[in-house]
Design a protein that fits this description.
Tripartite_DENN, 487 residues, alpha/beta, Beta-Lactamase, 2 domains, DENN domain containing 2D, DENN_C, guanine-nucleotide releasing factor
Length: 487
């Protein structure tokens, strides 16, 4: 999607409750009413890292198709404060305008719309009119009280016009994770906005009435532009939907394979990880790529790839987190009380802080397998899809080899409800180093959420991970058959 950024709202944190993991409420759905004009919670900033409980949150869903493309299109502009020299991001355009909402729906909409401007301008309110500004395409994630997520797809640029002016953001709010597709939609919105806001309405109305395509399918929109005539816009969804929300290029540009592997290892054990960079796009895209390496598992702790200045206290959070901080705030981060943090400088490609055991978390043989696979043929890849598959594949294979046998160790009742048999599952691994790693991994929230879904499902999900498990099992059978024939 060009440069994709993923910023999540403060507080996708987890706390233990009665032996079960539960996520706390996030900033836009619980604390917004206590926010001041800057977007920072009133009172002590340290309170930002307290952990109220809330229902289980859901990872970004994979959509089969048929849903609506989006909920809102917004334009967020910088407006000068009356009694200060800085600016406040404000929604200056909204489509559609919602009417006749029930009281609960109206309150939810107000909370949502109040949160969005802060994440369209996460780098603070100190701006000055500019004559040049590089456009940025990025996104953020808002988590509701019930754990469902909405994604904000953004394009930040200078509006058309003479002389110095302030950047503004086009923001599309959707429940669907498909960054490449929405980048193209933002291209069309930007093109129309240069003509007139009135030209945006029929395009977005047509998009709102169209059904979101299934993987590999295309939807075509008919749109009229003054002086250009009628245009037909084709929006095609990638066939392989598990990677449609990520681009690994920035991660590869910033870090060596060995460093990526150590970051992956830290994430697998749900540790605290902070990424540093100055550019919003590089910073956030790298974090989103790191989270994507965990497929088929989902990071469900604090996840803020672009931390707004007012929420920097998040790095003091005692529970696991994966966050991104702009380099200008490095000193504030270093002065914060933190324990066992992996601090990654994306600009220099170095670790400023580490626990020290990152190289020893994963089984040595499987580490070598990942590094060998990553290094083979990397320079021959031409498209972002090829890069994504090349980078993701070895990490998926890692999970296939370590936990791909999970379905055989779910014992089912007559009702169909399953119960995971942890001890025999771990003992089934013949490699001692693999078994040692898996005994730690099964205690994580990553694995717990995954296995809870598997216990509820009567059959393994027919997805990409299951496909790779079946391929691996077939390869083992063929290898065993060849060995028998040699004997």
């Amino acid at each position: 999607m060009g440069r994709t950024v993923d910023a999540a709202l403060q507080g996708e944190r987890l706390s233990r409750s009665g032996g079960r993991w539960r996520s706390p409420r996030c900033f836009p759905t619980s604390d917004l009413q206590a926010a001041d004009a800057t977007g920072a919670p009133q009172g002590n900033r340290e309170e930002a890292v307290k952990e109220p409980e809330r229902a289980q949150e859901h990872p970004l869903p994979n959509f089969a198709g048929g849903q609506h493309f989006f909920e809102y299109l917004l334009v967020v502009s910088l407006k000068k404060k009356l009694l200060a020299n800085d600016y406040e991001p404000t929604i200056t355009y909204q489509f559609p305008k919602r009417e006749n909402l029930l009281r609960g729906q109206q309150e939810e909409e107000e909370r949502l719309l109040k949160a969005i401007p802060l994440f369209c301008f996460p780098d603070g309110n100190e701006w000055a009119p500019l004559t040049e500004y590089p456009r940025e395409t990025f996104s953020f994630v808002l988590t509701n009280v019930d754990g469902s997520r909405k994604i904000g797809y953004c394009r930040r640029l200078l509006p058309a016009g003479p002389g110095p002016r302030l950047p503004q953001v086009y923001c599309i709010i959707s429940c669907i994770g498909c960054f490449g597709l929405f980048s193209k939609i933002l291209d069309e919105v930007e093109k129309r906005h240069q003509i007139s806001m009135a030209v945006i309405y029929p395009f977005m109305q047509g998009l709102r009435e169209a059904a979101f395509p299934a993987p590999g399918k295309t939807v075509t929109l008919k749109s009229f532009i003054p002086d250009s005539g009628t245009e037909f816009i084709s929006l095609t969804r990638p066939l392989d939907s598990h990677l449609e929300h990520v681009d690994f290029s920035s991660l590869l540009d910033c870090l060596r394979f060995e460093q990526i592997l150590q970051i992956f290892a830290s994430a697998v054990l749900e540790r605290k990880i902070i990424f540093l960079a100055e550019g919003l796009s590089t910073l956030s895209q790298c974090i989103h790529a790191t989270a994507a390496l965990l497929y088929p598992f989902s990071w469900a702790h604090t996840y803020i790839p672009v931390v707004p200045e007012s929420l920097l206290a998040t790095v003091c959070c005692p529970t696991p987190f994966m966050v991104g901080v702009q380099m200008r705030f490095l000193q504030e981060v270093m002065d914060s009380p933190m324990e066992e943090v992996l601090l990654v400088d994306l600009h220099e490609g170095t670790f400023l802080l580490s626990v020290g055991d990152e190289k020893d978390i994963l089984p040595p043989k499987l580490q070598d397998d990942i590094l060998d696979s990553l290094s083979q043929g990397i320079n021959e890849l031409k498209t972002s899809e090829q890069v994504n598959e090349h980078v993701s594949g070895p990490f998926v294979q890692f999970f296939v080899k370590t936990v791909g046998h999970y379905a055989s160790y779910i014992k089912r009742e007559a009702s169909g409800q399953g119960h995971f048999q942890e001890r025999p599952f771990c003992k089934a691994l013949t490699s001692k180093t693999n078994r040692r790693f898996v005994k730690k991994f099964v205690k994580t929230q990553l694995f717990s959420l995954f296995i809870q879904e598997a216990e509820k499902s009567k059959t393994p999900p027919a997805g990409y991970f299951q496909q790779k498990i079946l391929e691996y099992e077939e390869q083992k059978k063929q290898k065993k058959s060849r060995e028998k024939s040699v004997k």
